[in-house]
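Field reference: sequence -> structure
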Amino acid sequence: MHLSYFLGLFSFLVARQTNAELVKTFIASKCVLFFKNSLEPIGLEPIRHARICQIYQKIPRFATLYDRENRIPVYSAFIFRPGAVPCLLPRSKDWYIEPQLTFHNRPPDMMLLEDLYDSEKKPKPKSDFSQPIVDSQATDCDYSASGFDKGPLSLSCFHFGDSQEATFTLTNTVPMYENFYRIVWKKAYENVLLMGLLAVCHPPYIPYVVTGAVPSNRYALGRVNVPDWIWSAVCCTGRGYSIAFIGQNAPNGMVKVLSLKKLEENLKMLYNHFVTIFPSGCY
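Structure field:
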């Protein structure tokens, strides 16, 4: 491959300053602030995984535990910080992928999907650089060719400013049925949190959020797992307030609002082992 290609790509990535750093543990990383009392959830770690500290313009925005086998996130953890007028950012046309999932010696920079494909949606150029990236994670073709929506676990509406842009990475995204994502999950879950949580968990209280996906035996194009269930747990530290959600990712799926304890009981049945989302409790 020509040196000019690498130099151009490097210059582009530096200019965007969009980073995702693979770490051994979130607790020893810049993303520790997204976990209540610096404790990661228990019982959610798959055999082949990657911990990604999602960084945008040199600032950590949220954390993602990524399932390498299923090519979807297990969960994304963040602090609920919507802007004064949330959800006005149009859905991004720029979706990012993570070369570090394949090449561990690369700097922590995301790539835009458009830099990976040619006009026929085939990896470009045919080299040892692009094809392994396509093999290691979900790409735009997995969604456009299968008909599933890109469903971010850390929603842009729950962030403000530059943090919204950082959510448009496929390592934060799972395949969702269009009706479930656009009508049921995104609207119902989004509206309940935006209206309810802002009223009860304002500064100096901190609303910690962990949103995850329970994998199924279904795959989009035989590559990317289509999760059966999407869930989310919120803990407002200092107020002792918590709320949780779970929805079935299906054409006619619905979302339930439930207690944090009840959600963990549901996840215990779905994963067949104990799950603790906030190990230090919610108080």
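Note: The first strand starts at residue 18 and ends at 23.
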